[in-house]
Amino acid sequence: MESIEIYTDGGCSGNPGPGGWAFVLRRGDTETVGSGGEANTTNNRMELRAVIAALEEAERQAPGAEVHLLTDSQYVKNGIGAWIHTWKRNGWRTADKKPVKNQELWMELDAIVARVKPRFSWVKGHAGNELNERCDSLVQREIAKFR
Fold it and tell me: Which residues are designated catalytic?
């Protein structure tokens, strides 16, 4: 089975503020890089955008491939791995009955995860991991476009 490895990152200057997201996708000897940003957003929204865009690209390039996605966001890793099940069961409400923040992005991510079935791993940010650092540089470049 074909395999894809993806690193993602998202960030903001201020929270909210100008933000950026990025991914590096490796499929065999091929590498695809994607990035984007928004003028007024939050860090968590950018982390989610990065993962959604990366999984859409993986699905486009190689439907059915084994996908391993590495993120430095505990919010994304825990959200998709644990919290989302409770949110859905509770009608998209948190344990304290408040609406889930970024619900539309979580719903979008949930749908693509159901199709792609990626394995998620957490990687420590700003710790010298080459691809995580590349994503961070791309994020900073996207943020700079709004300054």
Answer: 9-10, 47, 72, 126, 136
